[in-house]
Structures are given as structure tokens and as C-alpha cells.
Amino acid sequence: MADRQSIEAFLQGEGPVVDVRAPAEFEKGHIPGAKNLPLFSDDERAEVGTTYKQVGRTAAVQLGLSLVGPKLARLGETLQEWSSQCPGQPLRIHCWRGGMRSGSMAWLAETLDLQTVVLEGGYKRYRRWVLELMEQPWPIHLLGGRTGTGKTDLLLELAERGVAVVDLEGLAHHRGSSFGGLGLPAQPSTEAFENRIAAVLDQQRAAPQIWLEAESIQVGRCRIPDGLWRQMQAAPLLEITRTVEERLDQLVQVYGVQDPDALAEATQRIARRLGPQRTKAALEAIAVRDWRGACAQMLDYYDRCYDHELERHGQEESRTEPERQDLAGLSAAAAADQLIGSGLAARSAKQHH
């Protein structure tokens, strides 16, 4: 009989995480790093569910057995392969609620003399853990600054130096504007985004500070969890500044390599807010590959958006002016060194899971 573990013990353990839910369930959201070995296909899962509702449990179980039977050899081979890749470590198996699907896969693994553990409560329990984690108090510090000040690059340099960072845009595969998805992989679901944030936070429980970029609640189509968003709204904000020329250099570096048609389409999406003259000028600049000219047309709009967000930050708390740091002339690496050297950003002690 496989050992059934609490969510905390399951996540802290070692060994491959084997998610036996159907592919569509896995695609919507899963434990980061998990591998999908579905007991049923999406259609088979629907068929078993319908049988359970319309005929009863015994008929559904019998149908499930008939569907899984022909797959047992293949499933067993995969379990053995994954187990052999992590010798001495158990297969960490879960389904939706820690019921028959994970129990069946654990039985198969143990029949093959493979060490296994099963997540008590399944993925449903994991999701509760994720949302509870967002409600816990975290030492959040926000890094703000107008478009093109290089906030993401700076966060990554801080992380390289041992400062705790949650790169929301990296986790969401989006830079947070109409142009934010250009050149990046498809965005995860909001559920998967939440799971990714939780995995990073869980590694930073001992951090004296955790730095995030000041974002809107939506990062593309991914929504920041309410519990974390409330803490971000109340968190101290460090605003970085750079010259307009430096900001244009940064924007050209990021967007000058993108597909011109995609840039034009993204520009059209904000045409109403950009205004007819700026939209026309931006599209003309894109057409002749004048990336600097195109980016210059966007700055005024995005500066107004940022200033509006800045005014709203902490509006329900006691308002304090954000601290500002002028980083003109500094590379991201040099800027990170300056923030750490001045004591504004604190390195973490070695993190333990």
C-alpha cells in the first residue's frame, strides 16, 4: 500500500511528480515540474464520468478497468523509465482528489516493485495550498519605473546576486503591455501562473525581502492572485529612473527584433488610447523599420499609464512617496550592485525548501 502524504511532505520530497489526470486537466494547471501520465484520455474521462452519473459507481469502475487494461503494459514501462532516472527516489503520484486514479497507478507501480507515495487530497489539495500561500504575509518590495527603465533586467541581476525575486512577467510569459507577448511563448493559464508563483514563494520563506515588479493586476491574460495583489498594493515601492534616450535604447533592443506586422497589430490595439496622430506616426515608423521613432510615439502613452498606476498604489493605505533611484548610465548589473551596496536590496540567507 503506497504511503499517503500531506501536501507539505509531498512537495518537500524528492522523486518525479507523476500527474495521472487527463491531458486537459494537466494543461489547465499542474504542479510545476510534474510529468503527465494520464490513466484516461480526455474523452475516456468524460465517458467514465457520464457513466458514473447515469448508471452508477460500479458500472463506471468496470468501464474504467476495460479502458485501462490494454494500457497497463505501456503505463508500467513509463513508470519504470521515470523511476530509473531517479534511483532511490519514490514516484510521487497524484490525481484530482487522491482517489482511484492515483491509487490505481500506485498499485501498478508497486506491482513492479517501484517505490511510490500518493498525495493525500490530490491536486485539489495542492490548489488550496497555493491559494493559502498567497494569503500568508510576505516581505514584498516593489520595483517600479516607467517603460524602458529596465526593471526586469534589474530584477534578474538582483536574483543573480542572491536577492529573493519573483519575476511575474517571466512566469506569465508577458511584458505587461499591448506589445508584451511579442516573441515570447504562449501564456499559461491563470491557474498555472498561480502555481508557478507559489513554487517560487515557497523557496523564499526565509527571505528578508522579496522583490517584484510593480504590475497591474493583469499580466497579459494572467491575473495576479488576490492575496498577493493586496500585499503588493501595500508594499514599499522603489522607483527607478533613467534618461529618455536610455529608455528608447532599451525599448529598441527588446522590440526592434520583433515581427513588424505583429508590432503594427499591437499598435492598432491601443490606437484609441494612443490617439490618431501618434498611431499614424508609429505605424509609419514601423513600416520603414524606424524602431526608435516608433518607440518614441509610445512613450507618452505608457508614461501616462504608469503615472496613473503609481497614483493608485497604496491609495487605501497611508500614502507615502516612493523612494527614487536614478540609475542613468548604469548597466543592470551595476545598478543591482548599487541597490545592494546602499542597503536598499537585501540578499537572502541560503534558502531551504
Structural overview:
The structure is a single chain. The chain is of the alpha/beta class. It folds into two domains: 3-130, Oxidized Rhodanese, domain 1; 136-341, Rossmann fold (3-Layer(aba) Sandwich). It contains 17 helices and twelve strands. The chain has helices at 7-12, 23-28, 42-54, 57-68, 72-85, 100-111, 122-135, 151-160, 168-172, 190-202, 226-234, 244-255, 260-269, 271-274, 276-287, 291-312, 332-341, and strands spanning 3-5, 17-19, 35-36, 91-94, 116-119, 140-144, 165-166, 210-213, 218-219, 222-223, 237-241, 323-326. Helix 3 (42-54) packs antiparallel against helix 4 (57-68) and helix 13 (260-269) runs antiparallel to helix 15. The longest helix has 22 residues, at 291-312. It is elongated. The mean pLDDT is 93.
Kindly state the percentage of residues in helix. 40-55%
Order of secondary-structure elements: EHEHEHHHEHEHEHEHHEEEHEHHHHHEH
Beta-strand proportion:
5-15%
Structural class: alpha/beta
Number of helices: 17
* CATH architectural category of the largest domain: 3-Layer(aba) Sandwich
- From the N-terminal CA to the C-terminal CA, the straight-line distance is 27 Å
Question: What's the total count of β strands?
Answer: 12
With strands numbered from the N-terminus, the spatial order across the biggest sheet is 1-5-4-2-3
Profile the largest sheet. Answer: 5 strands, parallel
- The CATH class designation of the largest domain is Alpha Beta
Q: Give the number of domains.
A: 2
Query: Rounded to an integer, what's the Rg over CA atoms?
Result: 24 Å
CATH topology of the largest domain: Rossmann fold
Query: Rough shape?
Result: elongated
Contiguous uncertain segments of 5+ residues:
none
